[in-house]
What does this fold into?
Amino acid sequence: MRGQADTAATTGTSRTPARGPRPRLKAVVWERTGDELRVVYDRREQLIIDDEAGVVEALLELLHAGGRTVAELADALTAAGRPVGADDVAEAVAAFDAHGLLEDGDRLGRLAPEDAERHFSSLSFFQSFASLSRSREDFQESLRNAHVLVLGTGGFNSNLLPHLCGLGVGRLTLLDRDAVEPRNFARQYLYRWSEIGQRKVARAVEWVRAFDPSIDVRGIDAGIEGPEQLADLLDEVRPDVVADGIDHPGEVDSWVNAACVSRGVPFVRGGMWVTEGLVWSVDPGRSACLQCASLPDPDAADLDAATATALAGLTLHDVRQPRTNRGIGPVAGLLGALGAFEVLRYLTAFEPPAYAGSSLVIDFAAGCAMRQQSWPRDPACTVCGPTALGAGSGVHRDAVAAPIGGGR
Ligand SMILES: [Zn+2]
It folds into this structure.
């Protein structure tokens, strides 16, 4: 077993002006059995390569060392008595990149050593999603340059926020209107017993600063009073993503939806219905929005009896049942972590958003069984439909009017 390559430092040959990438192997290992090479990065996938002449293994060793362009790799192989054309090397490099085995050494080593140490785990995570065109440090940089607006620092967001800080999100704006109360202590761990009665948002800002002073954090001691105020807030803050954990007033979700969709800002929401937890998001112009999911009137004439009955129950529950928060610590912790993961998807695109127009539903009365419940995009939606998102609306994402499947 050879070929451990797990440090972020570039290995040094002399730097010349850019002539394409300097491919470098990730933490790839390989072994030879007869004429075959077995190459593994992710244990779920192994490459078996026929390498009777040993050229591929020689190339892997050079890629492990890093620091060479494709032309320099071809030269080095030729000098070592294995003449190969640059085109063949380019083809092999493209194949390795397609299997997710390479990064560009020129896109590594930019982080200061203390930052590389600080983000060691995140960089190791991003290594799996990196390629020749995007290194693990590029992912980390997109987090450093990101700005997240955190609406509410209660159950959902007080559990989401530490993950954003740990990931290294560079800018945070926190909004909350409440004071620290004893009932928060079942599930909100940013606060201390000695802080009861103090303003939550100020304590949360202090928590972030104490955790990592390099994070640019600001607190706004206010609630959301109406759609105009929220729209003004978004225009002022201009966040990349909104983490939405505000429950009051009852219309606040539709305000967040309308303001975010019209500005092309994705938002991630967590919440709970009795024994079910939910995490969902809206990717403006791409996924269904909250308005697309609004329930039809159960009294509408064109509904069949079963649908009308189901809708009547949902409407009774949603409208009449008091919103009692039953989210104990493990519930809020799980929802907050999954919400942070969704924010991470939007900020880095390491993979597409997982819950856009598709609620992740967790049944806390059934072993935390998870299922996804998608809702279709409404082509006539007054918030995200083509009319609402017409020219000049400020939406910069492509507005695709196709439903994304499922039902509700
Ligand atoms: Zn919509």
Q: What stands out?
A: The domain at 145-374 is CATH 3.40.50.720 (Rossmann fold). Confidence is low (pLDDT under 50) at residues 1-17, 391-408. The chain has two domains: 23-113, 145-374. The longest helix spans residues 329-348.
